[in-house]
Each structure stands twice: as C-alpha cells, then as structure tokens.
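Key idea: predict the complex, not the pieces.
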Amino acid sequence: MSNRIDALTPGTFMLDGEEVEFGHGESILQAATRTGHYIPHLCWHPEFGATGSCRICTVKVNGRTGAACTVQAASGQEVESNTDELNSQRKTMLQMLFVEGNHFCPSCEKSGNCSLQATAYAMGMEGPHFEELYPDRPVDASHPEMMLDLNRCILCGLCVRASHEADHKNVFAIGGHGIQTHLLVNSSSGRLGDSTFAETDRAADICPTGVILHKRRGFQVPIGQRRFDAKPISEQVEGGQT
Amino acid sequence: MRYSAEEMDALLTRYDYAPHMLVQVLREIQERTHWLSRRLLQSVADRLHLPLAHVEGVAGFYRFFHIQPVGQYRILLSDNITDRMLGSGTLMQQLCKLLGVAPGSVRSDGRVSVATTSCTGMCDQGPAAIINHHQVVTRLTPQRVEDMAALVEAQVPLAQWPAEWFRVEDQIRLTNVKLGKQPALGAGIAAAIAKGPQSMLDDIKKSKLRGRGGAGFSTATKWQLCRNSKGQTHYVVCNADEGEPGTFKDRVLLSSYADTVFEGMTIAALVVGAAKGLVYLRGEYRYMLEYLQSVLQRRREQGLLGPAIQGVDGFDFDIEIHVGAGAYVCGEESALIESLEGKRGTPRIRPPFPVEAGYLGQPTTVNNVETFCAVTHIAVFGGEWWSKIGTPQSTGTKIHSVSGDCERPGLYEYPMGTRIGRILEDCGARDTQAVQVGGPSGVCLSALEFNRHIGFEDVPTAGAFMVFDRSRDMFEVARNFAQFFAHESCGFCTPCRVGTELVVRRMDKLARGYGSAEDIQVLYELDKLMHGATHCGLGAAACNPLRDTIGKFRPAYERRLQSLHFAPGFDMDAELSQARLATGRDDPGAHLETLA
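Result:
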C-alpha cells in the first residue's frame, strides 16, 4: 500500500516535461486528455468509468508502470508517456490485438474512422509481427438496423459500460475467459435482434473499432475523407474527444 | 438432471435471493444438474433480476462451471508438472482409451467426460484426479484407472467407489510451531480478549508477521488500515484459494488444524471489529466442505463463534464458507472479493484497496490460511516470541509443500531463513537439477543457488517447493507452466490474454523442433512487456519460469532450435512437396538440400 497515490486535492503533474493541471479525483489520462495531451488509449472514453483492460495507455509514473486511465493524478508526479520504450510496448500490444481477432482494414467499413487502426498508425505499426490466431467469430446481422462483426472486437468493454451507464439497458456483457474471452449479448437467443438494443443507443456509436455497425450506411463517407484520414489521432485531442 | 422451479426457489430463499450469492447458487444447481443450460441460467437471472448475459458471463468465467453438456461422470486429471512427472499423461491416455472418449470431450452417450485441470493440490500423492468436482482420487495407477473405467461403465454411484481411493494424507514430515502442538481450544481467543483489540494489534505488530500467501505484506499494517477504515460493517476473509501449482499446505491446515485457522479469523475479527468472516475455499477442496462446516457448528456450540463469544458482550462473529469454482486468479485478493460478490473473478482497480472498500464495498481484511494459524499462536505466546524465530526481516516459520523428485514429499515447516539445500537434504532429494520455489509465479533455482535462503529478503515463497532431478527437461517444465498461465488468464487485459497464448504457441513451436533464435528473442520481448503492462500479478508473473529457465538452462532451449543462428521463416524444401507430387518426381534433384 506504499504506492498509494492520493488525488484528493487539485494540482499539477509533469507529463513528458510539460505541466498538466488536474482536478479533483481525476486520473492521469482524464487530466491529460482534457488539457489536449495525447496518451494513446482504446478502452477509455471521457464519458465512462475506467476499466484499464486494453493497457495501451500504460505510462511510467515516477518510474513505476501503470495504466494512465486508472492511476489517479497527484501533485509532483513525473509521468513518462511519449517515449520510445513505451511506444514500442504499445505497438506490441496493438499487434497482439490485431492477431487476436480478424482485422482486414482495407475492406472494413470503419476504416479511417477506427481508433484501433488510427492508433496503430500513430505507433508506427507496419505489420502483425506475431502469428495470426484466426479465431472463429460469427457475424450477428439479426438486428434490423445494426450489426455486430465480432471479428474486430478488442474486448475494451466500452459498449458494456455505455449500455449500462448511459442507456440503462445492459445489452452487452463479457463472457468466457483467457483467450476465449468474448462479447455476449443479453437476449434469450444471445442474438442482437432479440435484445432491446436500439440504433439510437449511446452504445451504438461507442465502439472504437468496427464491431458495432449501422446497417445501410457503409462507405457513405468515402475512404480518404474520414475522421482519421484528415488528421492523425494524436492531433485530435480536444476537450476529451478521443 | 431435472431441476424444478420449486427446488430453485428453495435454494434462492436459502440465499435470500441475493445477487452476490450467484457463484454459490450456480455451484449448488450444477451439483445436481451436472451442467448449466441456458434455460437454467435464464431462470436464475429472472429470479435474481440480473441480465441473462451477466449470469452467462459469470458461468462462463469459472473452469468448473459448464455451459455445455458434460458427462454424468466428469473426470478431471491434475495437469501440474509433478502429476505429469508421476505419469498422469499416460494414465489419461489409458483412461480415454478404456472409455472410448477423446480428452476434453464428452462420450457420445453422455456417460462420461475426461479432461485435465490445473493443480489439484495433491502433488505429494499424485497423480490425482477430481471426479464430479467433488471427490478427489489420489495415487492413480494403471490398475486404479482400469477399475475406475469399469465403475463408470457399470454406472456405480460415486458413493460406492472404494473409499481408499479418496484417502488424502497429510504427510507432515517436519513440524515446528504451526504444525506442532496446537494451543488449547479457545486459548488464542481468550488471550486476545484479555489483551483487548488494540494490544492484540500491537502484539501482531511486535511479531513482525508478514502474510504467508506470497506477497508478504505486514499483517499488522493491513489490520490497522482495515480497523481504521469507516464502514457500516467490517469483514474478515480467509483466502483458502490455494491455487499456486505445487502448494498444498493450506489443504492440510484446513483438514487437520481448522480450529487454529478459525480461531485466527476470530482474533482478526476482534481486532478489526468484524461481525462476519468468510472462507473462500477453492473448488478443488470441495470435498472438505461438510467437515469444515461441522467444525464451525461445533465452535458455535462451544461459544467460540456466534453471539457474545466467550461471554463477551458485543463480541459477535460468525464464519461462512464460500466455495470457488476453479479460477486461479481468484487467489488475488480483489478478484477473490469479486468472486465472493458473485461476479467474474477479475482483479479490481486499486486503490481503493480491500481494507477500505472490499467485500460489498466495506472494509475487508483478506489473509492467507497459514497467516491466521500464525495469529492464533502469536495470541497465545506473544509477538515477542514469534519475532525471535526466523530472521529479523522474515520472522516466524514457513510451511513448505515439497513434491517432485525426492524420497519424502509432504509438508516441512522451518524457521524463515532456512537454506534451500537443507530442505533438499531433509526430503531426500538426489542429483537435483532445479527447484521451483513458490510455484510457477515464483522462482526457479539451479544447483548453483542451493545455498540461498527462504525469506522475504532472499527467496520469498507462497509455499510450493517442487524438486527436479537431472533426468528432467527444464524446457518441458517451463512449457507446462506457460500452459498453466494461458489456461488461467482471466482474459481481462490485452498483454496477459494474448501474451500468455503467444508464449504457449512459441513454446509449442520450439517443442516441435521448428524453433529459431528469433523465437527466443520474441519470448524475451513478451516477458518484458508482460512484466510491466498487465493489470494484475498473474500476467506479470506468467513469464517468470520462462525467463529463469532460458537464463539458467539455456541448452534445454538451444537443442530445440534448427540452428543457433539461422532464423528460418519456413521450410523451403517442404514447400516444394506439392510440386513434387504434381510432377511425380522425388529424386535427389527434386530436393533443395540435395541440389548441387
């Protein structure tokens, strides 16, 4: 318990040599993002509580590693994030996420709007490095408006939290364990079409990859004009929007 | 197999329809139905007002819960390295052949399913198996396997199987304080009451007792923090989820020294101000449940549990037992609490620590079985006495679960600071190549290090002491541990979920003889990443045995490489096989290596 970090009073910490102000109870990632600093992350979103599952935001705080989304900000912290060592680790973890699922960016309709892809570009990932695991993950197209392509699921749990915290529905949950961990849909059949999921749900637009997709909207915006085609993800941190 | 609505209502009434009892509810239902069908999960979800997906997510998390049909007889062979060394692999093949079932699957008539499980905690009397998640069979032999198959074929109920098979021995080889003469019943509580909570805490502080579960955190500090935390109620939790492969000391302490354990919990309750205690008993030790409950009942009758303990007004404390369902990660205290709350056993974000917000959000102290034993002795004999045993930084004694290549496996209790070599001599180990101390997440020592000492300042341990002689292949030892971690990863965080799987695949590749120097480099990389980036200690420790064995037994790896320097991407000659088939040629000129 000696590594206990208290963030009961606002103050400032140093992020890669820059001073960052934090508010009451904020995590390092919350404070950094709010002030326009980019710490790569996938499973965290400013609207929802942290879980710390993707580990992409792993930083060094006074020499100790921790996920920036779960470590509370405190005065006097020296936080390292944009270093070769940490970015290389992030690249490795992104490569892990890519080989764990079935990702084929050129044919994915989320290409250019995908945080996973954009983060991989930002970290200089050029190939999978590890052997592909090629899991057998079915596509669920049972819902009239939405579809689930679980091949791209990185188990960030954002849909679980959004459905619970914003929609008060609990449409999603995490099942299984180990490498067999997977997303579950709350319905008697286990299919999205039989759940209470609606196109207007907050959870419908929260997926950082291309799992939860709106039907009949694919490629409405041509590739080349999409969000991360315009500017890299690292330059789109404004008021906690990434 | 049928489970009626009335039965379910009766069960849930017994658990007050509390959603946090979900793991216990599912376990009790499955004891009757063998597996948890979607229909059953739906009924539980409806009655507890939980989303079906949540209930399904919990059921799918634990290795001992089945959401697909399993056999009427469910046989799980222990897959720890010591069981493998005793021949569990061959026995598994024999059993599967006799029963006509493939490992990991159900026989087509639904009679039986055979699979492996992580360490069952019977390493000193293996190879072991668990039948129907309830009975443990020790000392499997080809004869026993043959008889077992016959009993399954004849559909003989488990209760009528030979009692001898279920015999679990203590095998206590060397006693000191904790395994020696026990204090009189209630003496520890009486001493604690006489001192009062604050003085008792001071005494624990004086003893410098550190937790015996592996991490070695100061017990007094933990209790102090819990005592100082504000909450509606405080909890004392005994961590009996002894999942670290090679460890079985808690099993013996619970089966033969349960009173001392419960007494330690009661003393903790007095100190932190708790009215309720919980024992988290690992699923593999389910066979002890009725016995432990009978001990609790007797203690209630003796005024050692329940309201006004030993006649002291306001000192009310009782203990409940929760049974786990097969998940090593639940040994981590915050994952254990999640499991107690009926959820998936995923470690929590800390802070807050359990001493502030633990079970049901209340201040909770979680201590190991052996720690509670020590507390009872300290209450009776004093902190001063305990602090003089062992070394200045590691006081008292430690129980070691010794297994593997030695003449006398079993429990050995030594003062802290004992030399590794001394333990090897005492247990009759010969020609020892390596010792794995503290289980797979601990440290692997080579013969050059047998002069090192057990203790937090040198070689810390949760209790496992696995001995490997020179006939053993340390690569296979590391590979077994890699498989263990991949099997037990909770799947929550990226580096552990994917990393443990990638490690297994690399090790399998090396085992097949397709390794290259680059594979060893990748293993190093994975080790480094997982050490710093995982959510909890499981992932951080998952590569420990790998790193130790690559460093200390490198030849075991190198002889599996095609070449020490060349890093083959694929076998070019093998790629030509299809062309050879098509052309009908297989002369030397059609092979790359023979082409001049």
